[in-house]
Amino acid sequence: MARMNVNPTRMVLTSLKKKLAVATRGHKLLKDKRDELMKQFLELARQNKVLREDVEHQLSDVYKNFAIANAVMSKEMMEEALMFPKQGVSIKVGHKNVMSVDVPVFDFTTTTEDDTDIYPYGFATTSGELDKAIDKLAQVFPALLTLAAMEKEASLLAEEIEKTRRRVNALEYVMIPQLQETIKYIKMKLDENERGNQTRLMKVKDMMIAAAIREKQAADAAALADYRAKQAQ
Fold it and tell me: 107: which DSSP letter?
């Protein structure tokens, strides 16, 4: 792993150590977030599978009844019966927060006070299968909204999992090793400089001791010469 191009000073070393501590903590938090997102995503996927199978089964009954009604009724009568819907819905979109991800929540209200008032035609000229199809379609509508919200939530969670996974990998395999390598380099460089300073200090000390010894020897020699001169007199 290539190290960062920085000056090997103690100030930089302290700054990099702080960054490494933050990166390590962030890596742990992001891993915990990724694991929790995966847990919630898998649980949501299981619920989504069950709900989808139920919705598909109900829609299959709806299409079957529509097919039978279309067989026993003329095309013009079918179109006339369904031309002007009697019941309408108003959908409100809310949001809820799941691990810092805003996911949609759908709610709906009918445009009429009576929720069962769904047949836009008279019963004299239509078949019972059409009544069943309309009734089952009204029953499956809330499940369809729930399924749409769950699938959108699953999609958003999958995107967030991928983003979090990339951030975890970037910290684990790029940033943290790079910081560790740079810190190791600066420590080695500082230790090398410290050893060089100690060596220079020892040499200076030896030179000062040698100079002091020479001065002492010169002073002793001068004192001995004076003593001998006095003795000679």
Answer: E
